[in-house]
Amino acid sequence: MTIEEIQNDIIDEFSMFEDWEERYQYMIDLGKTLPLIDEKYKNEDHIIKGCQSKVWVHAEMDNDKIEFTADSDAIITKGIIAILIRVFSNQHPKDIIEADTEFIDKIGLKEHLSPTRANGLVSMIKQIKMYAIAYQTQLS
């Protein structure tokens, strides 16, 4: 699936819920399905700077696509990174770099996060795109 198709699926899924309490619960459930990062990557080199809670992200290239794994010590944040991993994992670096993240506004996520969590979300996206830029540079 393309990044846009995955984002559209997420928009559809979030639209099924009546209120934000249900959406938060769905995000928590998504966090439980997150492909967990290997413990050896839970270190300062893989931590996302700018997040209130601890979030670790690791990226590896596999057949010209980036595979991400992640974890967080907070359940909502784990759900947020799970959504981002779902969108960007197993995609080509170029597609990740060029992808917009409008779906976050369309599901209303940013407006329902505290300012520090919203900053953390921006930091997570920035780090994912930085991995993509680094791998794209290697491919060029």
Describe it for me?
By secondary structure, this protein is mainly alpha-helical. The chain has one domain (3-139): Sufe protein. Chain: A, CATH 3.90.1010.10. Helix content is 54%, strand content 11%. The chain has helices at 3-15, 20-32, 75-88, 93-98, 102-106, 115-139, and strands at 55-62, 65-72. The longest helix is centred in the C-terminal third of the chain and has 25 residues, at 115-139.
Total of DSSP H or I helical runs spanning 4+ residues: 6
What is the CATH fold-level name? Sufe protein. Chain: A
Largest sheet: 2 strands, antiparallel
Query: Unreliable runs, pLDDT <50, ≥5 residues?
Result: none
Q: Label the structural class.
A: mainly alpha
Helix-strand pattern: HHEEHHHH
In spatial order, strands of the major sheet run 1-2
Bin the helical content.
Answer: 40-55%
Rounded mean pLDDT score = 93
